[in-house]
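Can't paste images in this forum, so I'm doing it all in text. The chain is below; anyone willing to post the predicted structure tokens underneath?
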Amino acid sequence: MEKHVRQVVAELLDAGYEPDSQLAFYFEPDAAHTEADWEERAHLPLLHLFGKPSKLAGVSLKELGTSFFERSKLRLLPTAEYENGWRITPLNGSFKSADPDAASVDHSGGIVPKEGGTAVVEYEFEGKRAKASVTIS
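Text version of the structure:
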């Protein structure tokens, strides 16, 4: 499902919408299409549309997928959380590998392994940073 949402996001960005202000989305990989899961997130678009502006409290990274040496399916998903509880999957942040010899990371958080071991990846969004250690096997 995320693939379809990201396709629509790409089309809206191409149409001129400003990322993370006019256009925002939140991907929760563990949530299903159930009333209980929607209930947990129903307030987020309301905060975006009708809430007062809030300061960014922090960013975090969540590891998605599995890691394969030949072709990585490992990806880091960033989340930005604001002081009022609003959460988004940022569109304008940047990833950086602390050890580019072990792995690089693309703009969407996809890990590109180069050798086995552990790589530290840093994510930065609006002055806030998060780090994650990923194992490359």
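The chain has three helices and eight strands. Residues 2-136 form a domain with the Immunoglobulin-like fold (CATH 2.60.40.1080).
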